[in-house]
# Entry
Amino acid sequence: MDILRAILALPSGGSTVADRIDLLHGFVITVTMLVSTFVFVTAAWFTARYHRKQDDQLTENVSATRGGEAVLIVGILSMFLLWWVIGFRQYVEVRDPPEGSEVVYVDAKQWMWKFAYADGRVSNDALTVPVGRPIKLVMTSRDVIHSFYVPGFRVKQDVLPGRYTTLWFEVKEPGTYPIWCAEYCGVSHSLMRGEVRALGADDYARWKRQGDRPPPDADCGRGPGSCGDTSLVEQGRLVAERRQCVACHTLDGQKHIGPTWARLYGSERVLADGRRVIADEGYLTRSMMEPTADVVAGYREVMPSYRGTLTAGETSALVELIRSLRDAPAPSGITLPRLEVTAASDGGTSP
Amino acid sequence: MSTTPLAPAASPAPEASHAPGASPRPVAHPSYLGVDTTLRSWLLTTDHKRIGVLYLVTLLATMALGGFFALALRIEHLTPNATIVSAMTYNRMFTLHGVIMVWLFLIPSIPSSFGNFVLPMMVGAKDVAFPRLNLLSYWIFVAGSILVLLSTGIGGIDTGWTFYPPYSSISATAVPLALLGVFIIGFSTILTGLNFIVTTHTMRAKGVGWMRLPLFVWSIYATSIIQVLATPVLGMVLLFVVVDNGLGWGLFDPARGGDPVLYQHLFWFYSHPAVYIMVLPGMGVVSEVVASYARKNPFSYKAIAYSSLGIAFVGFLTWGHHMFVAGMSKFDAGAFGVLSMLVAVFSAIKVFNWTWTLKRGAVALKTPLLYIFAFLFLFVFGGMTGVATASMSLDVHWHDTYFIVAHFHFIMVGGTLTAFLAGLHYWFPKMCGRMYPERLGMLSAALVFAGFFVTFFPQFLLGNAGMPRRYFNYPPQFQVLHIVSTVGSWVLAAGLILTAFYFLWSLRWGAPAGPNPWGSRSFEWRTASPPPKHNFRREPPFEIDPYDYTQPLPDEVYQ
# Structure
């Protein structure tokens, strides 16, 4: 199985359906390779064997026999139908969520995935699920068509505005699996990425209890002293990753979906409506809670509100982080960076 | 040049008489090129051959433009982030690449150029049934193309060539203008199709029954049926998007009560059959070229002819396979999956027929046949990956990834473009009366094949690995495969540029071709090269079949 995946450049199979789908994949592609090579070699052989010997050479008519044609058609059709039967059965399995699946609601927008769990919690761009239990996603879009795609699970489903679609998977091994938007959705389509964080039973139970907190510094951002000796700036970095701020904002001056945080604090911001404001503490916190109030010129109104999501401790840690970046070095020449979210390791620790 | 015409030229073409070594003989009948040489006589011509040449020159220019965008896209992907352009420019470029290649090149490519040039000769006619409509069709095509290109000047269009709403309903780019351009081009497609259907029905010379038509005519006939029936649906749906975007009607925008999935059904109802508009004429070229160079009858004439019609018919029933993950019911998906496989059976019948036509033939390996070998390998591979994607569970993983990009480029470039190049080499002597250099032809065919394979094979692997299409930024683990693909595109470009150079050279300095350099029995080779204005000076009896190689060809040329 691993050899097959290595040859076909397939990612490792993280879901329960992946192995069977990959076997069909290997079967179909092997036959494809064999048949196209067979046709090519046969044509080359006939060309060599029946090479023209003189310029005005004549040939006898040779025609297919009825029997030969029938055998060919039946043979090809049976091979195709065999693939169809296997593929259709797998397709039905991938489409029908099993009874008792755990439901997570997905709300897609340009260019972010929002997840809402049954217990009322929400997260952006990071979907935390337990291993070994079927998860059913109920998905809709707020603007244009997106497509929820986890290559490691071999599942994909378009996410449409104005209607709900579903997708299910069951993860086999703990780990992180990238989510990529597969339906073209605008200028930052290729940055609309997230990740599935699949946790083992113990880790998942702890996550249910404590939320998106990495175990070693479980209380970071919850107030002074909550991270042991960690400074508030370091706490801010952890919060920025945990809450997926870095999916849209960079810390090193590069332009992304949202403005960078480097040299932001204290600078004068030109807003989309022409107003000018100074990026002080009040502006920064208002932009977290009411992002549409002061949209910076040149950026789209895409940030969701973090009111009720960020705790007071987390908010202050983020402001302190942004303050610490006011004298950050000049940005590199690259205008759009690699998205940090795919590089973040499980649990949100610093990459 | 090792080409010895079986039938000696009754009188060389006017151009040929200037060539060194050719004996200056009085020209009995001027060729279609020599009959009138003013610019006006070209731009307002109703001669199907001149219109074919006009189309050919225009289409080569649009192909070069689409290819330029393709090269720029490949260079952009040398690095995972911005390399030469911004994300917005990238989105506009892949949209234009798609729009230009699909509507300004591939759809008219073979029917409008070679179809116009050789189809009337193949049925033994003086011209198409409606010569003035034919000219109108060309100018409508030019007008539509200009609109599409104008839209690039006023902001471009960034929706992808599929124009999916609601993104296309709200995109701030020049969507209405570009779509109107494509809408107008649709009329040209319909007129050309109509012309070919009527020509085939009513203009066949005495003795040219349906079962004596060259197979190229069958494939163009099948293509024309699709063009006439499917293009109006595209016109309608594009107009809907224009009013959605321009006037805010919201037919496909759920925010205003519309349904975006309805658009996808309507769009693919045209655009899937459009794939056969692009590839069926290519299949016709293959049938001609294989028979001519193998100098043998097709293994099964009827199987090839009827599969063309079969593809045209079943092709209308498969559009749903573009929407397996769009939220369609499982029953619909299953039905569309199995119907899609039926189309592949017809294609497979053709492939095996072409291959077995070579058996016990007298095969001469010339450039066009080399292109056909490339076609056979690439088309079979591309077609079978199409069957693979019709195995629905696999499509769930592959949908909207580079696997699909690779699959349809194998069909569109590996199939249609190689067939187009085969046809260009095959009929160039007929069109211009001169030969191309054979060795350079073989070299460029090898370059095109190798370059194509290196460009697109890695994209199958990228798709397997999960790389979605239309991604400006991509995860760095994909960089190696992207670089390989980009280098391949340079080899492909080198092959095509070399081809362009030697064709230009051959126009003036190529060896005179004579009426029938390939010794073909097909009817268009029974007149002079280049042919006289009315193709045949007297009504030819066509006493032997277009694929009858059991007896020597009579020496007479029906100039």
User: Anything to note?
Assistant: Residues 214-219, 333-351 of chain A have pLDDT under 50 and may be disordered. Chain A has three domains: 2-46+67-95, 102-210, 215-348. Residues 3 and 9 of chain A are 10 Å apart (CA to CA). The domain at 102-210 of chain A is CATH 2.60.40.420 (Immunoglobulin-like).
